[in-house]
Amino acid sequence: MILDAHTHLFDRFEYLEGMTAEQMIATMDGAGVETAVLFTVKGLLGGLNAGDYRATNEEIAETAARFPGRFIPFASVNPRDGDAALEEMERAVKDLGCRGFKLHPWWTSFPANSPAALDVARQGDRLEVPFIIHSGTPPTSTPLQIAEMARVAPRATLILAHMGLSDLWKEALHAAARYPNILLETCGTPSLAIQIAVDRLGADRVVYGSDMPFGGHSNVRFQIQKIRDLGLPEASEQLVLSGNMRRLLGIESNTQ
Amino acid sequence: MIIDAHAHIGSTPYVTQTVEDLLRELDAAAVDRAVVCPMGAELAVRNRDGNDRMAAAMRAHPDRLTGFATVNPWWEAEALTELERAVTQLGLPGLKLHPVLQGFQIDDDLVLPVVERAIELGVVIYVHTGTPVLALPLQLLELASRYPEGKFIAGHMGGADFYVDVPLSFPRADNVWLETSLSPHAAYVEEALTTVGAERMLFGSDSPTSRIASELFKIGLLELAPEVEAQVLGGNAHALLESVGAWR
Asked: Nearest 5°: phi and psi at B148?
């Protein structure tokens, strides 16, 4: 059964309609997805109308607890908050049971290689939890900027969401080749880039994600089909679609 | 009839696609025709070689392939001569521009003579969009507004992050078509169908960067009304190519 490394919980985001947790589960069931890494949207927004990430971290943890085995809660913080962000990271992992962090340098508005972001990376290193970080969008979220976080946090796995997108996947390949604690996630990534990542770095470095509910109800099926259309050897496809994330998070599949 | 409005033949340091490779992919996905453009060095600098390759592919498979030419605007007067050769002698009915690979900004004055010559020659102009800072949708809109008589295609309909410009601004540009490859999911295509209009949407794959079957699956997920799906998957491309004399 598939594990999706990249989903967001929101009912409405600006003009976009989201999904409830129940709707997400129905979509997952329809596409053969057992478990999804779940994080916020609202808690990633910086600026004057910034979301309260403490509140959204609680919401994510509570949602995951309501549906055992279906969601893996990841928390979010704004690195610009300094010590308060580092304290929230500790609370999110130790008190709320979050298993990692989602950061979005573009939306939250911090360069991924800024001192504040590196402090957050070091805190993740101490807590030994993974990050998934939006990548591919200049000027704050390029793969080689995020690679600086991987450099200072060798015990924390850094997942480059979108593998740098269409424009920066070559950077993502270089970042992952340099730092063994970087994984590459596939939503919004061209097929050729995913194929080359598997060929050059190995299937154990690539993880499937969908970005649900962005892209609507059909998107999960599209993102899975994109992986299947690569025609990878079965063992490699299994690693990408679930094995690598299960190993990272230490979770077994309930069903085969 | 299904027409892939954007595919490539040639080589880059990362991938090679021969005519036979592309025909196999088209067959596997049950796609009838493809518009083919040069790739790699033949797109960036060795344009004459690329254009000859497109013409040869089209001559060998006139029922399957339609070649688009490319010229790098930095060749200046030579670019105009080569474009004229590619259109009048080789019979290529479109011009592909790739601002990032060819090194110019879409709304740079450098490109104006090439665009004007393409319009004089009566060919459609495909422009890669979605990559900051050189290839943004609003830059193409500026260019297209300046030449209302021109026919432009916004490649990848703004891609992932710059798709946001499409529903906001493209409804007012009725001489720009949107090509769907590498748009990250079907929801953007669905939204553009209503905001911009079904008659301006062109299915494309960007093969070999994306997979034809995957890109076709993306459109299929929308479960469009049959007549709308027929427009997007081929009807619009057929009409657009016909309007520039592709079937003569």
From this structure: -60, -20
Contact B180, B189 (CB under 8 A): yes
d(CA A106, CA A120): 16
What the block records as the tokens of A122 is 């070091």
For chain B, the C-alpha Rg in angstroms (whole number) is 16
Q: In what order do the strands lie in the sheet with B69-70?
A: B69-70, B94-97, B124-128, B152-155, B176-179, B201-202
Question: What gap in Å lies between CA B31 and CA B176, rounded to an integer?
Answer: 24
Domain count, chain B: 1
Tokens (6 digits) for B167:
């529903």
Residue A193: list chain B partners with CB under 8 A: 209
Amino acid at B45: V
Domain residues for the domain of B143 are 3-243
Q: What is the pLDDT of residues B39-76, one digit of tens each?
A: 999 999 999 999 999 999 999 999 999 999 999 999 99
Residues in chain B: 248
CA–CA distance, A40 with A38 (Å, rounded to integer): 7
Tell me the pTM. 0.95
For residue B185, the chain A residues in CB contact (below 8 A) are 188, 211, 214-216, 218-219, 222-223
pLDDT tens digits for range B83-99? 999 999 999 999 999 99
Residue B86 lies in a domain: yes
